[in-house]
Amino acid sequence: xxxxxxxxxDDLAALPTYxxxxxxxxxxxxASNEMPLPPLPAVLDAVDRAAQAGNxxxxxxxxxxxxxxxxxxxxxxxxxxxxxxSVALCGQLVQALCAPGDEVVFAWRSFEAYPIVALAGHxxxxxxxxTPGHVHDLDAMADAVTERTRLVFVCNPNNPTGTAVDEDAxxxxxxxxxxxxxxxxxxxxxxxxxxxxxxxxxxLAAELDxxxxxxxxxxxxxxxxLRVGYAVAPPELAAALRGVAVPFAVSAVAQAAALAALDHLxxxxxxxxxxxxxxxxxxxxxxxxxxxxxxxxxxxxxxxxGERAAEFAEHALENKVVVRAFxxxxxxxxxxxxxxxxxxLAAAGSFPR
Length: 353
Ligand SMILES: Cc1ncc(COP(=O)(O)O)c(C=O)c1O
Known about the structure:
This protein is α/β, with parallel strands linked by helices. Helices cover about 40% and strands about 15% of the residues.
């Protein structure tokens, strides 16, 4: 075809690509930090019912779910913005806060969407290396804040290392951040935290006007495929997040599923405790095999294997387990069922070292 080529943005090639965990037929998937169990039966019923009205647009304001979340967390509904997964809200935050050339600060390695949403939103991505212990270097992150910084992501617990920062460290950091810079506490894995020293971001957000919390229904609530997450933010920011949202981005099915999941939190949380138990087992067995495994407060473990990361993932796949390799850096392995974890541990045990 000959014609005038469309003019893509010059900087598009600089955007990193999001690499999703692979699904390989016949292999166990421990690559995307999902829960291994399907949605609860009551959630599936709600999904079925919502799908019956699939010829109609969803409630654009996500009214019922917003009210329910507000009640659940004891906050004003005006402080909640629901999105098509919390990753969509990461992008909306950049859109709502950053002008071209403004800076978004985050730890590295952390959630791989942060540099993508920053750069796609015409902002600059400022990556601050983790400490040698694979934890956020909050001092260095505070040092990295400049006049141009509009937004700092703190992923707590951190994906992919599983490590968490404690309340004292976070408060010391927050005290150093200017009032007009937003700190986003991304708590996608909050339900798996067992260390009481790790703060609930919602308590900090209740105190500080420059703190916003992101939560998701993708992990503990087992709705990754249905795409729903939310922000708890100061009311002006929540309104701005709604303002830049793609209209109708949260489907009726997603809204209904999230509402139904909120009716069954005890059951869901009991299964999260099961995942935490598997993470503890993976951590101790991997350590006794000689692997370095940072302490995890999430539903996954991190193996900082450096240059051997890709090779480890290949070996796991040969043993019918899909893990997530970050080439040259490490491998992240999500907790599955006890049988799936057994399969993975056997593969880790037979990896030539
Ligand atoms: C730290 C973190 N934040 C946000 C997300 C995005 O979750 P979702 O868009 O499914 O709500 C993920 C998903 O893996 C994550 O690890």
